[in-house]
Specification:
This protein is an alpha/beta fold. It contains nine helices and nine strands.
Length: about 270
């Protein structure tokens, strides 16, 4: 989280128009308050603590809390394990001018790195070349070297199931449009995954958003030192997988074909 905030504060084009809403989902890290306090001196930052949770998997509730508070035109969902490239905000500002009636939504590549050698003060000072950090085959990318959304990502919006490419760790959309389609579905909370696909489905299919990819909106995903507490290949036991397949027509068949094409041995079980 600290490096994530440092990368925001170090944006080359400044952060005068950036509002940061940091949501704490029952984090076990005792430094959250101290880190938020330090960066509130550098950023327009608000810390929101979710205290009455049965589990830390409450991404939808967290994003909805932020969506309700956000003041800006654009809403950017950035995960705490991702660092924005130094030109992210400058790129977004260049993409901002749109014609009346258009509703773009943006995303960028996730570049998977071992960030252990990146010191927070150096990131904050802009002295870190994140491109030089060791690349890894992340569990969160099913061990595939490059963001698994390529090459389809660069073909947005003219792809099948474009919502599958709008990952919540790095997606930008109009705040008002996100509210209009009802925000994130909190029935996905309690388990990992697929809440972002379902939200993007409504954003595009109901809200008329037109998804776009930009090379300038890349983020660097920092691999956790601890293995995940869940098996990403075990789809059959994941209620979020079952739910998203029910809510998005054709999604199950599309995803299973994509996993097979990449050689990812998921265990999806029989259709319910």
């Amino acid at each position: 989280m600290a490096r994530t905030l440092a990368a925001l504060a170090a944006q080359e084009a400044g952060t005068d128009d950036l509002e940061v809403i940091l949501v704490d989902n029952l984090s076990s890290d005792p430094r959250v308050g101290e880190i938020a306090s330090r960066y509130s001196e550098l950023l327009d930052l608000t810390l929101v603590r979710q205290r009455d949770l049965e589990h830390p998997y409450a991404l939808c509730r967290a994003r909805n809390l932020a969506l309700a508070r956000a003041r800006g035109r654009w809403f950017w969902t950035l995960d705490s394990d991702c660092m924005a490239n130094s030109g992210f905000l400058a790129t977004l500002r260049e993409l901002d001018p749109v014609q009346a009636g258009e509703h773009p939504a943006f995303t960028g590549e996730r570049i998977f790195i071992d960030a252990a050698g990146l010191a927070e003060p150096a990131v904050l000072a802009g002295r870190v070349d994140m491109d030089a950090a060791p690349r890894i085959r992340s569990d969160s990318n099913y061990g595939i070297a490059r963001d698994r959304r390529f090459p389809a990502l660069s073909d947005l919006p003219d792809v099948e199931h474009p919502w599958d490419l709008m990952h919540g760790g790095n997606t930008v959309f109009e705040t008002a449009l996100g509210r209009d389609v009802g925000g994130y579905d909190e029935d996905f909370d309690g388990c990992w995954g697929y809440e972002d696909d379902e939200f993007a489905y409504r954003l595009i299919a109901e809200g008329g958003a037109r998804p776009r990819w930009s090379a300038g909106l890349s983020v660097y995903h920092q691999e956790s030192a601890s293995p995940p507490a869940y098996d990403r290949l075990e789809k059959a036991a994941n209620p979020n997988w079952q739910r998203v397949c029910e809510l998005i027509p054709g999604y199950r068949e599309y995803k299973l074909a994509a996993f097979a094409a990449r050689g990812v041995p998921v265990r999806a079980g029989a259709r319910a």
